[in-house]
Amino acid sequence: MGVESAGRPEYPDPILEVAADAGEISAVYSYGLLLREFGLEEEANARYLRAVEPDSPGESHTLGLLFYADGDHAEAAVWWRHAAEFGHPRAALLLGDVLRGRGEITEAEAWLRRAAESGDLDAATSYGDLLRERGDFDAAETWLRKAAEADHTPGAVVLGILVRDRGDLSAAESLFRRAAEAGNHDAANNLGRLLAERGDLDDAERWFQHSAEAGNPVAADNLRTLRADRKRRWWRR
Description:
Elements: H1 14-21, H2 25-37, H3 41-51, H4 57-69, H5 73-85, H6 89-101, H7 105-117, H8 121-133, H9 137-148, H10 153-165, H11 169-181, H12 185-197, H13 201-213, H14 217-236
């Protein structure tokens, strides 16, 4: 018979335990959390490790996703590292992004490069963006163009930012417009900014609105600013 604790589920949960023993990874995750709730950290970790065979890194990757969705990014990184070390490119990308967010840039770069070299376009974009931020523009462009030329809209957006910042506004507009027309709201916002800066206010407003309606708060602010500025200009006439 299980032990009950006020406000907590009975331990152990026999149905969940059976599913965990069968190797269902979401059940392993949930049962591990239950064990940890009762202070059984070592037993929880042992169950996680039994569920993630080295020749099946996808299980570690899934554990990482479950921890990340629950807000435990540190634990997610542990399992993504486990998967990445056994060759899971998506886990390498996600681990790299977490490490980059923590400021561990050297290690983040190594994992992002490994994922990018596997052909993952999200990784090519993240790696290219990291290179852009540190000023390695030629290498950044190589990776970002690889993503953009494969119609990866986030890669096109970051490439657009890179070429815009070095003064190639025509190329930037082309990249932003193509990605915006494909439905990328970050591209729509960046296109709106570029158009507003050159005085094409009607088209800028249209793209800001498109991006804002897709839920982009930055575009919503840009749209309000543009409309307020146009109203002030009208009253001054």
